[in-house]
Amino acid sequence: MDKFLFSIDQTALGQNMRQKLGLMRGPWFDSLFLFVPLALCFIAYHFLFSHSFMAAGGLGTVILIYSAYFSTGHAMSTFSRVIWNKESFKKYHWLLIATPAAIAVILYFVVNAYGVAFLMTTYFVLQWFHYVRQGYGLSQVYRRSHNVTDPEWLHQAVIYLIPLGGLLYRMTTPDLKFLFSPLYTAPELSFLVLPVMGLGVSTFIVWLFRRAIDIYNGRPVIGYTLFVLTHILVFYLAFVHINDATIGWIGSAFWHATQYLFFVWHFNKRQAESAGGYTNWFQWVAVSMFVFIPGFLFFGDFMTSGWAWLQGELQLAAATAVALNLAFLYNHYLADAILWRSQKKTYQAKT
User: Fold this and answer.
1) Which of 89, 165, 93, 180 is nearest to 128 (CA)?
2) Could you tell me which residues are beta bridge partners of residue 181?
3) How far is CA 150 from CA 30, 263, 288, 334, in A?
4) What SS3 state is found at 102?
5) What does each of the 351 residues of the chain score in pLDDT, given as a tens digit?
6) Which helix (DSSP H) or strand (DSSP E) does residue 123 occupy?
7) Which residues are CB-contacts of 55 (< 8 A; sequence separation ≥ 6)?
């Protein structure tokens, strides 16, 4: 599969389409990158809105599948950025060893000091920020691919404002629950939702007008346009349109994690020519996703959150499952911030 994805977009036709349409890699890869994560988002929503599926315990099943095969898989794929050559491993190996253990200890004391609701609220907000920040970074890649001339303020407003309005809508909803746990909310700030969302929609209309001008001038910015449209659609569905905060989040989580997996493959592949000791990324992440990591999580969930679930303690079960994954995810946030920034100039030089 690695070779298949790499070869098709390297043909003369593929490279010509990449330059003409402003794609990240080529027509085949970009089609997968843009639409497979979106399809998984819609598939998750399809099952989660099925009454028979939910009545049979479907929500817990979907959360477990996401945690084991997508959440942890995409978090662990970050660390292929550490091991792709000997120099990177020597410089960043502590991200694989020291920080997950330290984060797990910190989480233990945080939960004991502030309770489950604080943990869940923090997790919910950080997930939102992580998702929208990834969207900004990927949209920048597409902007550079076609030299989009939009002012930076307009680009940032389109990427951030509608998602921010969605987050404000969620966090000002009274009695909000997420993963069976109540969240801390601030209903008294609900007056902010409409102005922020209105500003977001207004800038989105301006952005759409500029894309229409591009098409009129015979310079359609296809890759960038499709990415931003899917970004806005997913955040609107996840944080505004769908009433249930957990169900809304799950669809966006599948979208985010799958998108990240594709991009890490793309980035590592670009580095392969100069990488000493290059590790086949698909083989590495496949082993991590489908053998070792799910095995650890399933065992941990069965021994802790699974036991609580069987006892009817849904809030405790969800909090325990989240805590098990947060040791990986928070480390993933930290690793992302360090690794991607350290390679930003290298990537731009090669793009």
Assistant:
1) 165
2) 178
3) 22, 24, 40, 30
4) helix
5) 555 555 676 777 777 777 788 888 888 888 999 999 999 999 999 999 998 888 887 887 888 777 766 766 666 666 665 555 566 666 666 666 667 667 767 776 777 778 778 888 988 998 899 899 999 999 999 998 887 889 999 999 999 999 999 999 999 999 999 988 899 999 999 999 999 999 999 999 999 999 999 889 888 889 999 999 999 999 999 999 999 999 999 999 999 988 988 887 777 676 654 554 444 545 555 545 444 455 455 545 544 555 455 555 555 555 566 666 666 666 666 666 666 555 554 444 444
6) helix 116-146
7) none
Give the whole-angstrom CA distance, residue 30 versus residue 40: 16
Give the Cα separation of 214 and 208 in Å (integer).
Answer: 10
Please give the model's pTM, rounded to 2 decimal places. Answer: 0.80
Q: How far apart are CA 166 and CA 193, in angstroms?
A: 8
Question: In the structure encoding, which two tokens stand for residue 57, read together?
Answer: 């315990």
CA distance 222 to 229: 11
